[in-house]
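TICKET: design request
STATUS: open
ATTACHED STRUCTURE:
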């Protein structure tokens, strides 16, 4: 049963005329870091805009910690949204941008000033905050938008491609900030194509394709949901060529190829449990197997399953 600590989508669809945004979405998202993964046009931004009330559902209902998205005044007391749109009020400094947002929410001027500087400090922009945003780099503009989103300590933080334009050090600091927000009990909803980082930071993942939720949950659980896809396994052994030839004796093996480093093989099987049992037979036949590990418990592989190798590299 859903609670007021969850974000709930109940049979939600959104159409733009005859164009599908998302269709028949049913989700109960708990607090923590949830990553939305999918190619352009899959419905990630539509899902975020529905949570924030920027677009309305064509049908179905949404609850954000017990608040409907059309209750905008109540919603934005608990919600921060960092969009991917790179626009700012003309002539504003970084501080003025964050401070003005807090003032619009009704905070006392002195309290707003203190909260603005606290948020700016969290994204390491104290000195640049005194300069005009127009002079900022792309990464700095990204960080000042994040400061604006977290300044009022929201219970729900929605971040559309928040890692774009950040150098590796700042990206690492930003991910640590996401984790800090999640650890205090907030929802952190992240859309990203930086898949290895999604894999590292996510408590759960929602996979979208063509406006539909294909799978959701912890990454390993999501992998199990996609049961019609072959499982990929890496086997490290001393005789990879011989191993590959013997592997094809198993009728559930659909592919086996030598690993690029020539120290093992990559196998795709439609029955991983049966495959692991039969490996014992190969060991008895004189092949020394060093390690066996799944190659597809990560977001990147799941993403490739959904949209193909070409899309996963974009």
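STATUS: resolved
RESOLUTION: sequence designed for all positions
ATTACHED SEQUENCE:
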């Amino acid at each position: 049963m859903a609670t007021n600590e969850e974000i709930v989508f109940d049979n939600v669809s959104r159409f733009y005329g005859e164009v599908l945004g998302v269709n028949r979405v049913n989700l109960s998202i708990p607090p923590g870091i949830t990553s939305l993964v999918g190619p352009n046009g899959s419905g990630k931004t539509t899902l975020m805009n529905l949570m924030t009330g920027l677009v309305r559902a064509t049908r179905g209902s949404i609850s954000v910690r017990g608040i409907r998205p059309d209750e905008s005044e109540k919603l934005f007391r608990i919600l921060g949204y960092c969009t991917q749109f790179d626009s700012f009020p003309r002539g504003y400094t970084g501080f003025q941008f964050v401070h003005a947002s807090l003032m619009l929410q009704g905070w006392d001027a002195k309290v707003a000033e203190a909260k603005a500087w606290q948020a700016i400090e969290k994204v390491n922009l104290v000195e640049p905050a005194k300069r005009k945003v127009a002079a900022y780099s792309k990464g700095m503009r990204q960080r000042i938008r994040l400061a604006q989103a977290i300044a009022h300590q929201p219970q729900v933080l929605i971040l559309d491609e928040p890692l774009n334009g950040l150098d590796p050090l700042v990206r690492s600091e930003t991910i640590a900030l996401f984790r800090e927000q999640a650890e205090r009990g907030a929802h952190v909803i992240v859309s990203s194509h930086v898949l290895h980082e999604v894999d590292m930071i996510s408590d759960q993942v929602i996979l979208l394709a063509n406006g539909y939720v294909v799978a959701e949950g912890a990454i390993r659980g999501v992998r199990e949901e996609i049961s019609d896809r072959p499982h990929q396994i890496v086997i490290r052994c001393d005789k990879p060529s011989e191993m590959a030839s013997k592997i094809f004796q198993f009728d559930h093996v659909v592919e086996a190829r030598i690993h690029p480093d020539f120290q093992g093989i990559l196998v795709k099987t439609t029955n991983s449990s049966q495959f692991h049992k039969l490996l014992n037979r190969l060991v008895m036949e004189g092949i020394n197997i060093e390690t066996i590990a799944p190659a597809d418990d990560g977001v990147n592989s799941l993403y490739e399953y959904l949209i193909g190798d070409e899309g996963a590299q974009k």
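CLOSING REMARK: The first strand starts at residue 7 and ends at 16. The CA atoms of residues 103 and 277 lie 64 Å apart.
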